[in-house]
User: Fold this.
Amino acid sequence: MKEFTCIVCPRGCRLKIDDQLNVTGNSCPRGAQYAKDEVTNPKRMITSIMRVKNRENCVVSVKTSNSIPKGKIFEVMEEINKVSVNAPTHIGDIAIKNVLGLDADIVITKNVK
Ligand code: SF4
Assistant:
């Protein structure tokens, strides 16, 4: 039996999952899925920054559009570090499409004029 806190929403339900992947303590189905993913293939959203090449000392915040496998975080960070964008940027612009084939884009989360 494993226990952890659901991080899918602010309610923070205390989840328990047994070896047969039976989940208790969840208040909604998303928590059950989160618990199963956490023990079989844990995933995380990434937030980071990316260089803006046509502005001096300027970076823009970015995030993954979906959660990615925890074991791929450092490889995705390396991909983010390889790329720089040109201003202007807009919230929602895609900086990297389908990063490493993980079915997640790297999305800009800041407007830069
Ligand atoms: S189980 Fe559902 S209600 Fe509870 S924290 Fe997770 S997402 Fe929120």
